[in-house]
């Protein structure tokens, strides 16, 4: 019933629904964790970072491991998290990642490699994909980013009213 | 689409055929707002890639801005908003 507030929740099969659920759950957790005392600038920045991370995490986890960009994004988030806790594990993981990124992407002169390279930098895991895969994953990544933006806008609209 | 340009200038060296790539680029092009209105398929692939990059950057920036606004809202709100969020989960 209350789900009618967010249009995306009306269609249960869409990615946007799963995404909205995960993101709202993450926000809920964040809002419960917040300190009751007045927050400092660094606290605010920290919360901004946490909300942004939650946005990308809910995107990736609602898509699941079948998509390469989602796998790469989750790996990145996990690396960052474990980095805070255990330095040893992080060391091992970043090693693996750098080794993988050393594999040169296939040269595709028709596409203009400059644009191709910047696209690889923008799509999570893009450095490791062959060109076809990159184009494929880019399309899906864009769709999910759009869904995420929509969900966030909906929540803000709800808040502001 | 109709009338693909002939691609005889180069014998297929790669595993990926140019047709496959052309299809994927067309699909990508349809996702980008600036291109949706423009029906002509004369836009070069590198142009499409450039516009795709710009579009992704814009979306990233939008997520940044929205995260910032959300963090402001969470901060200013006392319980009530958190309760609202909670109610969305029910």
Automatic annotation (TrEMBL), chain A:
InterPro entries named in the record: IBH1-like (IPR044660), IBH1_N (IPR059002)
Span of domain IBH1-like N-terminal: 14-80
UniProt keyword annotations, A-Z: Transcription, Transcription regulation
Pfam families named among the record's database cross-references: IBH1_N
GO biological process annotation, one example: regulation of DNA-templated transcription
Name of the protein: IBH1-like N-terminal domain-containing protein
Record lineage: Eukaryota, Viridiplantae, Streptophyta, Embryophyta, Tracheophyta
Automatic annotation (TrEMBL), chain B:
Chain segments annotated as coiled-coil in the UniProt record: none
Keyword Transcription regulation attached: yes
Classification via Pfam families: bHLH_ILI
Single annotated GO MF: protein dimerization activity
Keywords: Growth regulation, Nucleus, Transcription, Transcription regulation
GO BP of this protein: regulation of DNA-templated transcription; regulation of growth
Domain BHLH: 5-59
Endpoints of the signal sequence: none
Tagged with keyword Transcription regulation: yes
GO cellular component: nucleus
Taxonomic superkingdom: Eukaryota
Cellular location(s): Nucleus
Name of the molecule in the record: BHLH domain-containing protein
Gene source species: Dorcoceras hygrometricum
């Amino acid at each position: 019933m209350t789900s009618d507030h967010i249009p995306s929740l009306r269609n249960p099969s869409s990615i946007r629904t799963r995404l909205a659920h995960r993101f709202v759950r993450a926000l809920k957790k964040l809002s419960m964790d917040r300190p009751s005392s007045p927050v400092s600038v660094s606290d605010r920045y920290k919360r901004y970072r946490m909300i942004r991370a939650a946005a990308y995490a809910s995107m990736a986890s609602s898509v699941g491991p079948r998509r390469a960009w989602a796998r790469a994004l989750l790996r990145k988030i996990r690396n960052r998290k474990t980095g805070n806790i255990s330095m040893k594990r992080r060391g091992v993981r970043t090693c693996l990642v750098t080794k993988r990124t050393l594999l040169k992407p296939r040269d595709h002169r028709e596409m203009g490699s400059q644009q191709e390279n910047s696209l690889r930098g923008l799509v999570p895991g893009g450095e490791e994909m062959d060109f076809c895969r990159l184009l494929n994953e880019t399309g899906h990544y864009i769709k999910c980013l759009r869904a995420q933006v929509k969900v966030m806008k909906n929540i803000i609209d709800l808040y502001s009213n | 689409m109709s009338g693909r340009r002939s691609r005889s200038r180069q014998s297929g060296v790669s595993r990926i055929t140019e047709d496959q790539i052309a299809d994927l680029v067309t699909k990508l092009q349809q996702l980008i707002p600036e291109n949706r209105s423009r029906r002509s398929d004369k836009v070069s692939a590198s142009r499409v890639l450039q516009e795709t990059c710009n579009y992704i950057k814009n979306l990233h920036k939008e997520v940044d801005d929205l995260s910032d606004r959300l963090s402001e809202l969470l901060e200013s709100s006392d319980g009530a908003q958190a309760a609202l969020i909670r109610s969305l989960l029910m």
